[in-house]
Amino acid sequence: MSFDRNIKIAPSILAADFANFGAECQAIEAQGADWVHVDVMDGHFVPNISFGPATCAAIRPHIKTVMDVHLMISPVDPYIEAFAQAGADFITAHIEATPHTHRTLQAIRGSGAKAGVALNPGTPADAIEHLLDLTDLVCVMTVNPGFGGQKFIDMTSKIRRLRDMIGDRPIHIEIDGGVDPKTAPLVAQAGADVLVAGSAAFRGGSVSNPAPYGENIRQIRAAAEGVWV
Ligand code: DX5
Ligand code: ZN
């Protein structure tokens, strides 16, 4: 997988039909998704439960692009191998969920996956200063994790600070929460390249009527790239 800073839209299947994940992944990719974002929640680190590694393994054959697994679980370390075995390309852990984040990122890379670290809205950019050499992706949460469809929290100053800290290193900046055509330009201008979108990507469409997915993705991408449609 080669590195670039082009805008990538990563729809979150948290907003898809849970009874139809395979077909939903195929539909969203056919409609222009660059990555597929997979939100794993444990009812402990966050107040909601979604699904685990068995579901990730089941949907993997239906994803041709990048499977981007966002772990909102604590502890993290005992489950890394299971998500790597399930076929995750990126495994992202929250810095707030794992006391030895340095070890966790090493373990993720050791499993063969790319290592991501996520920051809740209240966590400063500087918290990951000493982790950058072990990091392939920084996920800046623009909502408090746990649910889709929440209101965007402005984190542009944090994104700018991270962009400066990262410099030339091949580290993605991903934004997660409340991304839509209005908020996408703010985060893209600040330096983000991966935009997760749940409700704004899946709104109005379905497996039997997937065209709205494509229109939603096009609008978010065009807004992020500076062209309003
Ligand atoms: C929040 C999740 C997000 C969320 C995004 O805990 O990590 O990925 O599903 O959904 P929207 O785009 O609806 O805010
Ligand atoms: Zn997420």
Can you offer a commentary on this structure?
It is a single chain. The protein has 229 residues and is of the alpha/beta class. It has one domain (8-225): TIM Barrel, CATH 3.20.20. The protein has helices at residues 21-30, 53-59, 80-85, 101-110, 156-166, 184-190, 199-202, 211-224, and strands spanning 8-11, 35-41, 66-72, 90-94, 114-119, 137-141, 172-176, 194-197. It has an 8-stranded parallel beta sheet. Helix 4 (101-110) links the parallel strand 4 and strand 5 (114-119). Helix 6 packs across helix 8 (211-224). Bound molecules: D-xylitol-5-phosphate (DX5) and zinc ion (ZN). Zinc ion is lined by residues 12, 37, 39, 70, 176, 196. Residues 12, 37, 39, 70, 176, 196 line the site of zinc ion. InterPro entries: Aldolase_TIM, Ribul_P_3_epim, Ribul_P_3_epim-like, RibuloseP-bd_barrel.
User: Radius of gyration from the CA trace?
Assistant: 16 Å
Strand order of the largest sheet: 1-8-7-6-5-4-3-2
Question: What's the name of the CATH homologous superfamily?
Answer: Aldolase class I
Ligand types: D-xylitol-5-phosphate, zinc ion
Q: Which class in CATH terms?
A: Alpha Beta
The structure class reads: alpha/beta
Shape: globular
Topology pattern, helix = H, strand = E = EHEHEHEHEEHEHEHH
For the largest beta-sheet, the strand count, sense and barrel status come to: 8 strands, parallel
Whole-number count of domains: 1
Give the total of beta strands. 8
CATH architecture: Alpha-Beta Barrel
Terminal Cα span: 30 Å
Helical residues, percent: 25-40%
* Proportion in β-strands: 15-25%
| Sequence stretches where pLDDT stays below 50 over 5 or more residues | none
SS element count, helices: 8
> Which topology does CATH recognise?
TIM Barrel
Task: Report mean pLDDT, rounded to a whole number.
Answer: 97
